[in-house]
Design a protein that fits this description.
By secondary structure, this protein is mostly helical. 55% of the residues lie in helices and 0% in strands. Mean pLDDT is 83; it is low at 1-31.
Length: 156
């Protein structure tokens, strides 16, 4: 599951609009490092600099995020404008997607091939694009499980 996902690269680059916010971004720890710290980080909420950095890194539009988080694009824009932290429920989904994409890049050896796979219809996942499952925690886990099968050569 997502618990098994490894985080190797913590270096982040932000777009020009978020660079100023980077000064206030703390280095997040992930479950493999400190589960209690992860719980506390999620309770405090993911900040907008982390969110927009992730969005730029994995090429998600506000429309994509709106669908995955069940928030309007306008709300996402307001979070950025107000430099607001996301509520716990949204923070969890953001971090789950971040961990999934890091694991996918590891399994596919690069982010580009993983993104291509995420946009390609997958028979083992019900003949839909894996990216379409990112709107629920269960769907994210389904994609993560499929990545583990691919990593171990167990193709359905």
């Amino acid at each position: 599951m997502l618990k098994d996902l490894e985080i190797k690269d913590k270096s982040r680059t932000l777009d020009d609009n978020c660079r100023q916010d980077m000064k206030n971004v703390k280095e997040y720890k992930y479950p493999d490092e400190d589960s209690l710290e992860m719980v506390n980080m999620l309770r405090n909420g993911v900040d907008t600099a982390y969110f927009y950095n992730l969005s730029n890194r994995i090429n998600f539009s506000l429309e994509d995020w709106s669908s995955f988080l069940h928030l309007s694009e306008r709300t996402l824009q307001r979070y950025k404008k107000e430099n607001k932290h996301f509520d716990t429920i949204y923070s969890e989904r953001i971090v789950q997607i971040d961990l999934l994409y890091k694991k996918g890049a590891q399994v596919f050896d690069n982010i580009h091939d993983f993104q291509t796979w995420m946009e390609t219809i997958s028979v083992p996942l019900g003949s839909i694009k894996p990216k379409e499952l990112l709107d629920t925690a269960y769907g994210i886990n389904m994609v993560a499980d499929e990545l583990i099968r691919i990593e171990h050569g167990v193709l359905a």
